[in-house]
Specification:
The protein is an alpha+beta fold. Helix content is 42%, strand content 22%.
Length: 192
């Protein structure tokens, strides 16, 4: 039986991060896969680094084991503030989001709402994505990531696939316009 050491895991993640950064920089057309929260994070960081116009994100609840990353939050803020990019988020399970007071990614997004380049909405019962068992993001009509197993963070994506990205953009745009409302966080009770 072969055992994987912590050093081997870190090396794999560093190599994967470098590989994803190269694909993003080169606007490579290859389909890539990822199968862990750390791989998902590598892709998300590089989406925000390479996006120029918009990032549209459909998520269950912006899971903190992926989104609460200092580098990701920094890249998202640079995208909005320095490149005037637009971030649209559609949340499938706002009740789970409201229970997570430690969601720093969401907190930072909500502070940027006043720029009018950030919108966060939640799906309503009649929304086409209400019962979706996949999550996805799309950016600049060429970048996409589809999470086909939302429990294991298993996904496929590309940094340069116009056809798939436009399909996902159209689905997202319909879902965010039809039967979605602005997300308003539920105030957390004060600790005594």
């Amino acid at each position: 039986m072969t055992h994987t050491t912590a050093a081997q895991v870190v090396t794999v993640d560093v190599e994967y991060e470098a590989f994803i950064a190269r694909l993003a920089k080169d606007k490579d057309t290859r389909t890539i896969s990822n199968s862990s929260p750390s791989h998902a994070l590598s892709i998300l960081r590089n989406v925000f680094r390479s996006a120029q116009e918009y990032v549209k994100l459909f998520s269950g609840s912006l899971s903190t084991n992926v989104y609460n990353d200092e580098t990701l939050i920094h890249e998202m803020k640079k995208f909005v503030n320095d490149r005037s990019g637009k971030v649209s988020v559609l949340v499938q399970s706002p009740d789970r989001l409201n229970q997570d007071a430690e969601n720093e990614f969401l907190a930072q997004l909500l502070t940027l709402k006043s720029t009018e380049r950030v919108e966060v909405k939640e799906v309503l019962e009649e929304n086409i994505l209400k019962d979706a068992d996949v999550h996805f993001l799309v950016s600049d009509d060429r970048i996409y990531r589809i999470e086909v197993d939302i429990v294991k963070n298993t996904a496929v994506g590309s940094f340069n696939d116009n056809q798939r990205a436009v399909q996902l953009r159209d689905i997202f745009d319909k879902a965010i316009k039809d039967n979605a409302r602005l997300y308003e966080p539920v105030p957390q009770p004060a600790l005594a």
